[in-house]
Amino acid sequence: MPREILAAHELLSEVEQGLPRVAHLPALIVWGDRDRAFKERQRLRWERTFPNHKTVILPSASHYIQEDAPEETVAAIRDWWPGGSLGGGPRGSRQACSISPSCHSGSSSSSARYSR
Question: Does the pTM exceed 0.85?
Fold first, then answer.
């Protein structure tokens, strides 16, 4: 896998250069807390890049969140979209953390934790 990442350097650089064009958009960051490749430092970087974000941390998930915590991943996406459906765009209120009782809000973002 590291060889593939190194081979994608040009593409990844292009993506990074384009981030300022989309950084103002609402973003949902669903993060596996047990990811051995991407740690808290990388998550914090994404949160800084997208100040209008909602972060959902999945404590029992590793890198492949959709396999490790499929129900929690779907719930996070549905909660983020208006009406719990995928039509219409992200919810305006990032601080309404209805998906988890241990959810806490920041000044410009919010976070939630799921337990399995």
Answer: no
Owning domain of residue 107: 24-113
Is 42 inside a domain boundary? yes
d(CA 77, CA 94): 13
Non-local CB neighbours of 90 within 8 Å, separated by 6+ positions: 26, 28, 80, 81, 82
Count the residues in the chain: 116
User: What are 48-104's pLDDT values in tens digits?
Assistant: 999 999 999 999 999 999 999 999 999 999 999 876 665 555 654 343 333 333 343
Whether the CA torsion 44, 46, 50, 53 is positive or negative: it is: negative
Structural domain contains residue 16: no
* Number of structural domains the chain divides into: 1
Strand partners, 112: 56
- Is residue 100, in this structure, part of any structural domain at all? yes
The amino acid that residue 59 corresponds to is P
C-alpha–C-alpha distance, residues 62 and 65, integer Å = 6
